[in-house]
Amino acid sequence: MTDGLSYPCLFGTMTPVTRFCPKCEAHQNTRVETWDEHYECDKTFIVISITSRICVACGEALGNDEMDQAIIDTVQSIATSVGQRKKGLTP
Ligand SMILES: [Zn+2]
After folding, report:
1. Which residues have CB atoms below 5 A from the ion given as ligand 1?
2. Residue 63 Cα, ligand 1 centroid: separation in angstroms?
3. What domains lie within the chain, and their CATH numbers?
């Protein structure tokens, strides 16, 4: 058993290919990329594998508040389950 946990998060990959990029301040073509964000929770290493669109011109991740919130929710729910597992509250 490893102490690293990996969770996938998918955002907006089905949305139109052209999106407004705040960095370019213009509509740009986008492509789907996957990258990992690392979090540590109660000494447990958590990897969130994020799939989202990025700006082809500048590489900016075109997330939104919804995506940020979903990541926070995911990390918090993982934190809760990790905490419960350590206390033996879940099977
Ligand atoms: Zn851009």
Report:
1. 21, 23-24, 28, 55, 57-58, 60
2. 12
3. 7-86 (3.10.20.860)
